[in-house]
UniProtKB/TrEMBL annotation:
<dbReference type="GO" id="GO:0003723">
    <property type="term" value="F:RNA binding"/>
</dbReference>
<keyword id="KW-0694">RNA-binding</keyword>
<dbReference type="InterPro" id="IPR006027">
    <property type="entry name" value="NusB_RsmB_TIM44"/>
</dbReference>
<comment type="similarity">
    <text>Belongs to the NusB family.</text>
</comment>
<keyword id="KW-0804">Transcription</keyword>
<protein>
    <submittedName>
        <fullName>NusB antitermination factor</fullName>
    </submittedName>
</protein>
<keyword id="KW-0889">Transcription antitermination</keyword>
<dbReference type="GO" id="GO:0031564">
    <property type="term" value="P:transcription antitermination"/>
</dbReference>
<dbReference type="GO" id="GO:0006353">
    <property type="term" value="P:DNA-templated transcription termination"/>
</dbReference>
<feature type="domain" description="NusB/RsmB/TIM44">
    <location>
        <begin position="204"/>
        <end position="296"/>
    </location>
</feature>
<dbReference type="InterPro" id="IPR035926">
    <property type="entry name" value="NusB-like_sf"/>
</dbReference>
<dbReference type="Pfam" id="PF01029">
    <property type="entry name" value="NusB"/>
</dbReference>
<dbReference type="InterPro" id="IPR011605">
    <property type="entry name" value="NusB_fam"/>
</dbReference>
<dbReference type="GO" id="GO:0005829">
    <property type="term" value="C:cytosol"/>
</dbReference>
<keyword id="KW-0805">Transcription regulation</keyword>
Length: 312
């Protein structure tokens, strides 16, 4: 689930915290990274369970409406498309999701049903819901299209929802876009009569190792990495360089020097993209210039030892 860029962001936050706290306890910061990564997965479970709760709300309200119509002798059959949505039904019955929540002792939305209700009403009031409910030929493809719409256009953009999640965990603001993308991919893989497969936290164990190695290599060599930056900024005092920029440049250096399997171009691109989201408007150009000068120095001193074709 977590991409390499997201993992780099987790490391950036930990190194930044290290500099601010000036602590020598690396184990606490490693715990911080691990907690941050597992909390990202907790957010995914929150969002998956949110769909389940919205579906439960729809089922309950559909039942109440039917009972009212029967008691008033009105011959009307409310649309069942939403409550019969094949993807939502499969997700609601998923043992994998239930087990994941139980293992973490999570019961999201149980005490915060107003968010579920508010989103349900927004869905019900949407034009897409009306069109979907009136469709005379429902299908799995249409179920997915509808579910994708309500997630992308109603659930994910909800400021009320994001404020609520941010109150639970401040780091979820950074994780929210990634989790939303993961949710869309996850829903597309759900098939009727097949057990739901939850996405793994890491693509593979190499990503987990990469995260901790990047953190350790950056911190264990922090004085050397920092000193090298000062020599490449003749017109800037160290104190005038944005602290996030310093962290990103040190991490990029660590990848240049200690990660033989990561292409230089990939490293540069990743940190420039992170800078655009987390630092000042001019940071990406500044960082790019510093990294370019550092690369020339590393190549001149034969310090780059990349393995494999195309890694330079």
């Amino acid at each position: 689930m977590l991409t390499r860029r997201q993992l780099r962001i987790k490391v950036m936050q930990a190194v930044f915290s290290f500099q601010r706290q000036n602590t020598d306890d690396l184990k606490d910061l490693e715990k911080f990274i691990n907690t941050s990564m597992t909390q990202s997965y907790t957010l995914f479970l929150y969002m998956a369970q949110l769909l389940v709760k919205i579906h439960e709300e729809a089922v309950e309200r559909h039942g109440k409406k039917q009972r009212r119509l029967l008691s008033s002798n009105v011959e009307e059959n409310p649309s069942r498309h939403f409550i019969d949505n094949k993807i939502l039904l499969q997700l609601r019955e998923s043992e994998a999701l239930k087990d994941a929540l139980q293992q973490r002792d999570l019961d999201p939305w149980h005490l915060d049903s107003k968010y579920v209700e508010n989103l349900y009403f927004k869905i019900q009031e949407s034009k897409t819901f009306v069109v979907y409910s009136m469709d005379e030929e429902p299908s799995l493809k249409k179920d997915l299209k509808f579910l994708t719409y309500i997630y992308e256009d109603i659930i994910a953009p909800s400021d009320e929802l994001l404020d609520y999640l941010e109150d639970i965990n401040i780091t979820w603001t950074d994780d929210f876009p990634l989790v939303n993308s993961t949710m869309i991919q996850f829903m597309r893989k759900i098939k009727p009569l097949k057990e739901v497969v939850l996405p793994p936290l890491f693509k593979d164990q190499e990503d987990a190792k990469f995260t901790m190695n990047l953190f350790r290599k950056t911190l264990l060599n922090i004085n050397e990495l920092s000193a090298r930056i000062e020599g490449k900024t003749p017109n800037w005092d160290k104190e005038r360089i944005a602290q996030i920029d310093m962290v990103l440049i040190m991490m990029a250096q660590a990848e240049f020097l200690y990660f033989s399997d990561i292409p230089v171009k990939v490293t540069i691109n990743e940190y420039l993209e992170i800078a655009k989201d987390y630092s000042t408007p001019k940071s990406a150009n500044f960082i790019n210039g510093i990294l370019d000068n550092l690369l020339k120095e590393f190549e001149k001193n034969d310090q780059l030892h990349k393995m494999g074709r195309g890694l330079m």
